[in-house]
Design goal:
The complex is a heterodimer of chains A (111) and B (124).
Chain A: E1 9-12, E2 18-23, E3 36-40, E4 47-50, E5 64-69, E6 72-77, E7 86-94, E8 99-102, E9 106-110
Chain B: E1 4-7, E2 11-12, E3 18-24, E4 34-41, E5 45-53, E6 58-60, E7 68-73, E8 78-83, E9 92-100, E10 110-114, E11 118-122
The chains are: A mainly beta (111), B mainly beta (124).
Chain lengths: 111, 124
């Protein structure tokens, strides 16, 4: 069981929007630690998608939005495209565990 | 953009030491970053192993700290990982990474660049 909880899977039709939740606790997200999101396409290494809760690195489409509130964070994908089929992971820092924590990952399927 | 490439044995026997090397391209070992290792298993997902900066400051995952060592060879642009007394649960894809971290309250370390990963299987 991961410290950060994500739904195992979400799906949507092309053009629709999906949202992935990342639920933590008062020792990580709720303590104010930044949340980052990674996209992992099949057979490849993860890639940084959102950093510091809301920021997109250069080259990441503006269809990806990050947000954070309380002990949770979310990743929204608007205008879903076939190329968005991937696993998505959230990550933060935990003061009780004195280290990084990851979510278990969410598989996005474009139906 | 920095290029990272891991290398090492794909098969390690239980109780032995896993040793991996990562070559960092284009003299990208700079003081602004940490460098580290992360692994991924089907069962446990992504797990950070540890990070090191140019000053040699290290942070290790508490669950692995007694078995792990990370070092930098800056003249040769190499990062190394050593994991002792391996068991089957250490079977994973191991990634080399550049890590950005401000080390101030609220800041979480993040991986800005990943290597392609190397699969290490622990089996007799």
């Amino acid at each position: 069981q991961s410290v950060l909880t994500q739904p195992p899977s979400v799906s949507g039709a092309p053009g629709q929007s999906v949202t992935i939740s990342c639920t933590g606790s008062t020792s990580n997200i709720g303590a104010g630690y930044d949340v980052h999101w990674y996209q992992q396409l099949p057979g490849t290494a993860p890639k940084l998608l959102i950093h510091d809760n809301i920021n997109r690195p250069a080259g990441v489409p503006d269809r990806f939005f990050g947000s954070k509130s309380g002990t949770s964070a979310s990743l929204a994908i608007t205008g879903l495209q076939a190329e968005d089929e991937a696993d998505y992971y959230c990550q933060s820092y935990d003061s009780s565990l004195t280290g990084w924590v990851f979510g278990g990952g969410t598989k996005v399927t474009v139906v | 953009q920095v290029q990272l490439k891991e290398s090492g044995p794909g098969l390690v026997k239980p109780s032995e030491t896993l040793s991996l090397t990562c070559v960092v391209s284009n003299d990208f070992l700079t003081s602004e970053h940490y460098w580290g290792w992360i692994r991924q298993t089907p069962g446990k997902g992504l797990e950070w192993i540890g990070i090191i900066n140019l000053s040699g400051r290290t942070y290790y995952n508490p669950s692995l700290q007694s078995r792990v060592s990370i070092s930098l060879d800056t003249p040769n642009n190499q990062l190394s990982l050593s994991l002792a007394s391996v068991r089957a649960t250490d079977t994973a894809v191991y990634y080399c990474a550049t890590v950005e971290w401000m080390e101030v309250w609220g800041s979480s370390p993040r991986v800005s660049d990943w290597g392609q990963g190397t699969l290490v299987t622990v089996s007799s």
